[in-house]
From TrEMBL:
Keywords: Signal. It holds the Pfam family SBP_bac_1. Residues 1-20 form the signal peptide. The keyword Signal applies. It comes from Nocardiopsis mangrovi. This is Extracellular solute-binding protein. The lineage of its organism: Bacteria, Bacillati, Actinomycetota, Actinomycetes, Streptosporangiales.
Length: 450
C-alpha cells in the first residue's frame, strides 16, 4: 500500500485495505510487515522505515521488510490498524503505536510483550525511566520501545506580537495574559491575522482533547482521572474553566474561523501555511512543530528560527508550578499475530539503533529518550527543539492510558465543539460530558470534582 487515503467508516476501511493490496504477507516468516502513520507534515516515520527496509534487506538476504504506510490522522490511523489486527493474515508484525493506546491494544490481544527481548538488548540501558513508563501496560509487562517524546506550549510569531505591542520574548504568566496578547493582535492586525490557534472540536480529534483542552485543564489543578482512587472525575471547577477559555477564544473572535478550525488538516495548514505566511500569531502546539520547517520538511521554511519563538503555557492564575505541558510519544510494538516475532524484533531493534533513533529524533523534532542520542554530536548540532520545550518535561502531564480513554476523549471534543459553535454554554457542555462519561465507564467509576 502506498499512501492510500482512508475513510473513517469500517466498511470503507475494509475496502481500502483490499483495494490497496494491504492483505498480509501470506504468513511468510521471512517477510516482516511494518504499519505506521504517514500523514500531513509528519514524514519522519516514513523516512525512517524506508531506510530500515533498505538496510535490513541488504544485510539479511532473503528477508523482506514490507512497509504499510497509512495516510490518516491519528484516530483514523488507529481504526485502520485495529481492522488489520482483527485478521491474522493482515495483522502487521511491527506497529508504530501511540503510547496512550497500548493498554487498549493489550486488552484487545493485539500486542506481544517484549520483556525477554528488552532484557537481552544491550541498547536498553540507554533508555530512561520515562521510556519505561510509557510502554508498560497495567499488567506490568512491556509492550514497546519509545522512539521519543514531546511537550506542548505556545509557538508565536515574534514580529506579529511586537507589532501589536506585546513584549518579546513573550512570557505569559496567566491565561489572561494569553488572551490579552491575542486581543492585542486582533486589534493591530484585524482579519489579516488569526491571533490564537486553540485546537477544538471533533475533526481535530486528539489534538483538541490533548493539546487543546488538557493543556488548559492541567493548569487548573484538576484532572480527568484520579490515579489513586481509579475514578474518572466530572464536575470539577477546572473543567468548567477550561471550557470557559474555549468560549472566550471563539466568542471574542480570537481564534481561527470555526470553519477553518474544524478542518481535519488544520494542524498541517497552520504549520505549513499560516505561520510561514504571517497569517497566524500564536498556536497552542507541540514542540515538534519545527518538523514542518526544517530542511527535510515538505515545505522547508529556512527563516523560521528568525521568526518563531516558543513560550511555556502558564497555569490558569500563575499558581505553582507556574507552567504546564502535556506529553505523549510513539513507540514501536510487536504484533501478537506475528509468525516470526524473533525476526520482527531484529527489524525493530535495527530501527531503534543509535543511528536510526538519531535520524528520527532530528527529522521528527523529538525529545530523545535514549541518552546516547541526546548526547550525540549529530543531534545536538541539529536539534530543532527549543530548550524550553525540553525543560517542560519537568512539569508535564500525561493522558489517562486506559481502554475507556478514547471514548472519554471524544466526549471532550464534543463538549469543546458545542461551546465553540455556541450550541451550548460551558455549564451545559460540562453537564453533557458528565452524563457521557458515566455512560462510558459506569457510575461506580466516577466521582464528582470540586
Amino acid at each position: 500500500m502506498h499512501r492510500a487515503p482512508i475513510s473513517v467508516s469500517a466498511a470503507a476501511l475494509t475496502l481500502a485495505l483490499a483495494a490497496a493490496g494491504c492483505g498480509g504477507s501470506d504468513d511468510d516468516p521471512d517477510t516482516i510487515t511494518v504499519a505506521y502513520q504517514d500523514y500531513g507534515a509528519f514524514q519522519a516515520a516514513h523516512s525512517l522505515f524506508e531506510k530500515v527496509k533498505e538496510e535490513f534487506e541488504a544485510e539479511n538476504p532473503g528477508t523482506t521488510v514490507e512497509l504499510r504506510p497509512i495516510e490518516a490522522p491519528p484516530e483514523d490511523y488507529q481504526a485502520q490498524v485495529n481492522l488489520m489486527n482483527q485478521s491474522p493474515s493482515e495483522a502487521p508484525d511491527i506497529i508504530y503505536e501511540d503510547t496512550f493506546t497500548i493498554n487498549q491494544d493489550v486488552d484487545a490481544g493485539y500486542l506481544l510483550p517484549i520483556d525477554d527481548y528488552w532484557d537481552a538488548w544491550p541498547d536498553a540501558e540507554q533508555y530512561n525511566d520515562r521510556a519505561d513508563a510509557g510502554v508498560t501496560a497495567l499488567d506490568g509487562s512491556r509492550y514497546g520501545v519509545m522512539l521519543g517524546t514531546d511537550t506542548r506550549g505556545l509557538w508565536y510569531n515574534t514580529a506579529l506580537l511586537e507589532q501589536a505591542g506585546v513584549e518579546v520574548p513573550w512570557e505569559p504568566e496567566t491565561w489572561d495574559d494569553v488572551l490579552e496578547a491575542a486581543r492585542a493582535v486582533r486589534a493591530e492586525h484585524g482579519d489579516a491575522v488569526a491571533p490564537l490557534n486553540l485546537y477544538s472540536g471533533t475533526p481535530a480529534g486528539e489534538m483538541a482533547s490533548m493539546q487543546g483542552f488538557q493543556m488548559l485543564l492541567s493548569g487548573t489543578g484538576d484532572a480527568l482521572y484520579d490515579e489513586e482512587s481509579r475514578e474518572w472525575i466530572t464536575g470539577a471547577p477546572g473543567f468548567l474553566d477550561s471550557l470557559e477559555f474555549v468560549r472566550t477564544v471563539y466568542t471574542e473572535d480570537l481564534g481561527l474561523d470555526p470553519q477553518d478550525a474544524l478542518n481535519p488538516t488544520v494542524s498541517t495548514i497552520n504549520n505549513e501555511e499560516r505561520f510561514p505566511s504571517g497569517e497566524l500569531a500564536i498556536s497552542l502546539e507541540g514542540s515538534w512543530a519545527t518538523q514542518s520547517w526544517i530542511e527535510s520538511a515538505n515545505q522547508p521554511w529556512p527563516e523560521w528560527s528568525d521568526t518563531m519563538a516558543f513560550a511555556a503555557m502558564p497555569t490558569r492564575d500563575g499558581g505553582d508550578p507556574g507552567t504546564t505541558s502535556m506529553s505523549g510519544g510513539w513507540a514501536l510494538s510487536l504484533g501478537a499475530a506475528s509468525t516470526n516475532p524473533d525476526l520482527a524484533w531484529e527489524v525493530m531493534a535495527h530501527a531503534l539503533n543509535l543511528e536510526n533513533a538519531t535520524k528520527f529524533a532530528v527529522e521528527g523534532a523529538q525529545i530523545p529518550l535514549r541518552g546516547d542520542v541526546a548526547a550525540s554530536e549529530e543531534f545536538t548540532a541539529s536539534d530543532p527543539n527549543p530548550d524550553l520545550a525540553t525543560e517542560l518535561v519537568d512539569v508535564t502531564h500525561f493522558r489517562p492510558a486506559y481502554g475507556e480513554y478514547p471514548r472519554v476523549s471524544l466526549a471532550i471534543q464534543e463538549a469543546m465543539e458545542a461551546v465553540m459553535l455556541g450550541d451550548a454554554t460551558p455549564e451545559e457542555a460540562a453537564a453533557t460530558y458528565a452524563q457521557e462519561v458515566e455512560g462510558i465507564v459506569g457510575a461506580d467509576n466516577v466521582r464528582q470534582g470540586g
